[in-house]
Amino acid sequence: MLRRYFRWAGVAALSCMLLTAGAVSAQDRTGWPSSVNIGTASQGGTYFIYGAGWGGLIQEMVGVNASAEVTGGPTQNMVLVHQGRLEFGMTTMGPAREGWDGQLQVARGLQTRDVRALFPMYQTPLQVVALRRSGINSIADLDGKRVGVGPRGGTASVFWPRFFDDLGLNVRVRYGGAADQVGQVQDGMLDAFAFAAGVPISAFSQIEAQQPVNIFSLNEEEIAKVTQNHPVSRFVIPGGTYRTVAEDQPTVALWNFAIANKNMSESFVYEIMKAVLDNNDRMMSIHRSAEETLVENMVHNTFMWFHPGAVRYYRERGIEVPEHLIPPEYKD
Questions:
Q1: Which segments of the chain have a pLDDT < 50?
Q2: pTM, 2 dp
Q3: What is the pLDDT of residues 238-283, one digit of tens each?
Q4: What is the reported pLDDT for 81?
Q5: Residue 42: predicted pLDDT
Q6: How many CB atoms lie within 10 A of CB 277?
Q7: What is the predicted pLDDT for the residue at 118?
Q8: Buried b (16+ CB within 10 A) or exposed e, 157-193
Q9: What is the reported pLDDT for 295?
């Protein structure tokens, strides 16, 4: 009789534990959206490829439908995520800082303080491609030329015109999607395409496969000048990144971060952080630039509040988030 009682008590306890676990699991998903959109950039750039892959990983590992949305890029993503018109996005730290401080050209005075940082993505180097027959193979050769700089609000469209001014070049800047502008270079409607994206830039690889091209960037003297005036740092693109470029190429780059609206559920964001940062091999299969999507690179965000779900993830990994990056809504 006593043995039968303890057997029943054990079954009851186990049932209670399973019910409790089920309740916790259900509670963890309270406030989760049924689907989300990720702001990327134009098709043909690394943002769109990376964002589409990231969305697929969310769908597979977190169980929420996620779609990559074509946008104007980092600047516009800061505004759209701040306004809650996109749940997630991708941004470069230069435009992100301007948005944080209310200095975006597309939204003067709007401080995008409802944006929260998630995880580091990769560095964005700046490069130029031109047809070999054009004879354009240096930044100085762009003087007086028609040069595409990607969509308005993208990293390239923000920084390349500033670089040209710093270097005293009179460049006729044109805006548009990466895939469109590389096509215009092939058709002779543009003399060159100056872009910024994780390498290899798919639009550059595309044109390289079809016609002889020159792929180049800033020389050391030009790098020294622009790094004095802008939040960029020296970067080296390894030789072999592109089929026709055997030597290492110096240039400048900025860090990219994934972002979320502050109203996203903490537990939902936490699961996304785990899916991305605990599975770098999967991210690498999306795009080679994800080799820098590593937890230790979170230190490259120095001003934007992290999402509470991101703070929880970093602390569980033993990484202390600086006090000034803890958001007001965070509850320990």
A1: 1-27
A2: 0.80
A3: 999 999 999 999 999 999 999 999 999 999 999 999 999 999 999 9
A4: 98
A5: 85
A6: 22
A7: 98
A8: bbbbbebbeebebebeebbbbbbbbbbbbbeeebbbb
A9: 98
> Is residue 32 within 8 Å of residue 141, measured between CB atoms?
no
Fold type of domain 125-254:
D-Maltodextrin-Binding Protein; domain 2 (3.40.190)
Contact 319, 297 (CB under 8 A): no
The tokens of 148 are what? 């595409």
pLDDT attached to residue 26: 45
Angstrom distance (rounded) from CA 58 to CA 318: 24
Query: What pLDDT score does 21 carry?
Result: 37
pLDDT score recorded for residue 50: 96
**Distance between CA atoms of 192 and 186, rounded to whole angstroms?**
9
Residue ranges, CATH 3.40.190.10, the chain: 36-122+256-325, 125-254
Instruction: Determine the CATH number of domain 36-122+256-325.
Output: 3.40.190.10
Q: Kindly state the tokens that stand for 196.
A: 């910024």
Within 10 A of 30 (CB to CB), how many other CB atoms are there?
9
d(CA 315, CA 323): 12
